[in-house]
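Protocol step 4 of 6: record predicted structures for both targets in the notebook before any analysis. Target 1:
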Amino acid sequence: MKAAISSLISSNNLTLHHSSSILSRSSLLRLRPLSLPPSFFTPLPTKLNTNPFGFYQKSQISSTNFSSVMASSYKPEQARVPPALPLPAPPLTKFKIGLCQLSVTPDKERNIAHARKAIEEAAEKGAKLVVLPEIWNSPYSNDSFPVYAEDIDAGGDASPSTAMLSEVSRLLKITIVGGSIPERSGDRLYNTCSIFGSDGELKAKHRKIHLFDIDIPGKITFIESKTLTAGQTPTIVDTDVGRIGIGICYDLRFQELAMIYAARGAHLLCYPGAFNMTTGPLHWELLQRARAVDNQLYVATCSPARDTGAGYVAWGHSTLVGPFGEVLATTEHEEAIIIAEIDYSLVELRRTNLPLQKQRRGDLYQLVDVQRLNSE
């Protein structure tokens, strides 16, 4: 047993973390004894082979088999509760996405017409999925939200913004992730994203789950909860361009939501968002790439264009990130329409390259999808 432990340490299978690059002798003496399960010391199964000279020699059974045995003891399927769903076959493997980074003004009618024109231009360039920014029909302010809010469920004249999205998605036969607008429902206001299918039907609504309440002294203070109510439901929707998980801006910061979407079989996460000039330069791209690489799927974000004269100044930089964390397309802060290709075969490839789903430690940690669990 001592020999086994000595061999383990010398072969670098044990990594010692210390503040200094060189461990002193006294530090080594203070190390606690290894605490390893009894099964660790069980000899590997062996088989006898004959070499060219007729002598018998022992050889270890492949490390691949041993790894699979160890992986099963880690219970990776239990790391998600309920267990993760298999990635569904998408309706198509490749398609173009359009991210419309729009300027927003106090003129609501102009904003609606401007968004429609951008959607039409993206579709002309081949986009089968078009994404709009967060709060694209209204200035981003607590004073504006109640004034510009629409009753999405009533539709028609009660919601001219979503009526336009429904019509244009049907006419162009595209899927639209309609950014977000202030929504009025009874006596409450929400920051809401509407998703329309290529038939013009409203397929889902996502009400921003995590409200943007922050205070960075001398930089930015914004309290969305002064006027808005937080949504209560994660939103994942099957569309003509695959299974999409939806978040809005501040939702991007919460990895648990993205993990739930991945466990529900999402191919793509879409986050309409308006990061600001303080957090944007530091966190916007970082968070997108983190959500993509952690969950091995595509992440698309769409921001308003920057208006330095506005009360809230957006960072811009709408972006598409691939399942390996690579930035596939982005822009600066001006108005722009980004057209980029999504290839879902890369999701399977990266999950084969790095089989994280099979390597999770369900014996040590779990992520619980409360909504799915309660629905079973």
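Target 2:
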Amino acid sequence: MAVPNFPIDEAYLIGSWLESFFWGLYTLLFAMSMHTIYKKRKEGINKFTTFCLVLLYMLATGHMSLGLTRLIQGFIIYRDTIDPITYFSSVWIRVNMAKDYLYIATMFTGDVVVVWRLYVVWGKNMWYAILPFLMCVSEFVVGYGAVSQWLLPHPDGPEMVRWGTAMYVISMATNVLVTGVIAARIWYVSMRTKRVMGVDSDGRYNRVIILLIESGALISATKLTEFVLYNIAPGDGVGGLNAMYIIYEIVPQMTGIVPTMIIYAVNHGYTRRDDYYTDHGATLAFATGTRTEPTGHTNASLSAVAFAPSDLDVSSKNAAAEKGRTEKLSLKLSSSSSLGVEQV
């Protein structure tokens, strides 16, 4: 079956338009998230996550700006010198290489944020994050290696394709693997808390799991679509199906939107159950090393939590027993399985 023809200049034009649309949404979401972080600064902020959010926005903005530059050059400045199809298929042009470098840096940063979530939910145990982080580094190296081939006196086209393919595969594998492990870890700890304490949570962990899985699935689906179109696209970019450049243009925006959306949702309590704000029949208790206190609505870490009816009348003996069970679970979870929901 013949591959349909989709000109590269048309693909870049549509892709850049979509990128500007998503950049507008991203800018609004980023501003709201930064405002929330600023309001919570006295309670303490996660400097690493905040830095990555700012970096992702800067990289996405730079990518969109270079995309606009390419459109102006291809359709206006050089239109009497070189036709648009030839210009956009000349991927070795320096402005396009700079754009590719920003694209790879965005993918790397986005995957590092996912690995950071893994590091947090495993109690900040670096051993669980070493392999995924090395996969991120490998993705960065092969990506920059592929683009930098154009700086050599005699670029090797097939070698660039192999390096580019490796970059996409590593990035997809990292995203799927880490997101799955994070969701499984949060589910395990929430079920363990329910089993040991004999009480149920307020559904917040379930909402967090769903949010992480859906966001990971969105990024994975985007990367998978781009990878499939990458393998279909012609090598010279002149004829054939060049639809991959549409996805290529919006990936930096999607990579930044997803983690920013997660931070905004968690900080605003959207991961809680729908009746959390109206149901006052439950009390959230955080266990400490010496005592257990009801804290109500809080931004503290949810490692070792208990949910119980606030009007429950228990005997002093049962209260003491429950206190001992809570403290025991707290000591075990706080050392090895602190979820740090606000840090993901």
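Step 5 preliminary note on target 2. The first strand starts at residue 282 and ends at 287. DSSP finds nine helices and three strands in the chain.
Proceed to step 6 after PI sign-off.
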